[in-house]
Amino acid sequence: MSNISLHQIDNIYNELFRKFVEGVETVNVADFQHLNVNKERTVTSENDIWIFGYGSLMWKVDFPYVDCQSGYICGYLRRFYQHSIDHRGTKIKPGRVVTLIKAELTDRVYGLAYRIAVKDKENVLKHLDYREKNGYQRCEVTFHKFPDDSKESTLKILIYIATPGNESWAGEGDEASVIKIAEQIFTSVGPSGTNREYFFNLLHTMLALFPGIKDNHLLEIDNELQRLILTCETKLLERALKKEIALTLHSLGNNIPLNDDAVQGQLYQLIKHCSKVGWREELLVKELYSGNENTGLEIMNHLGSLKDANDDYVKLY
Prior knowledge:
Number of domains: 2
Pfam families: ChaC (PF04752)
Strand order of the largest sheet: 1-5-2-6-7
GO biological process, one term: glutathione catabolic process
Number of strands: 9
EC number: 4.3.2.7
Largest sheet: 5 strands, antiparallel
Protein name: glutathione-specific gamma-glutamylcyclotransferase
Order of helices and strands: HEEEEEHEEHEEHHHHHH
CATH class of the largest domain: Alpha Beta
Family: Belongs to the gamma-glutamylcyclotransferase family. ChaC subfamily.
Oligomer: single chain
CATH architecture of the largest domain: Roll
Radius of gyration: 23 Å
């Protein structure tokens, strides 16, 4: 058994790591002001095309366009029913992104329409086909301007939809529950960043561009996600980091002083890790899923009855 004491681990955590856990994580909030929404341009062509954005295309626009209009399409609902294995998650730990499901004709999905100049059409479609390659198909629908245009002007627009049956579909059974969706967003990160960044940017953009319009699905997920962050995250990360500290010290052997260069070097590497994008999600996954037959959801639901954060990492020895 190692001579490392719980008191020493607590001191290391409080001195070096507590600030990372309790600090407010910076989310890259999308700046949609540069989109110039609803400011029509005059240089257009009848051969231009329109693309409808209802997810990340509302705030992460990485293609050229000549006009941007706010509005909605009818007969669909926006849902976080698609796994993300290439942007906000991985094949091992998928995140969640939005798609559309068929609904009543009175239902609306609000978003942004981008007019693509004919000279850019081929390259933009090629780019978006690749960006939306994980289960999304391109189709055409009717777009209505918002605020509602007295002229009732509409236009044909292209959208990308991930339909049931694609390999990343997550809209059936328990996977379609708000609690499960929020849990995935809470713990997922991928090549494009954290799943939270995706969710909060979508929510922020919707609230800013469509005041007074309620997307109940987004708001329900937000409530559950905020609950997880506010009531579960700090305790889970503290437990996980104290385990990492204990394992780090234990791996260096007994009786090694804490001011030893080897100890300081290992702790510095752990500090560097806590400065990287996705460190929270990585530790949350370890704490919730590794070596445990219960689901992360079951663990989180019982967090209130868990013992002190010290109890688990002492069992390492």
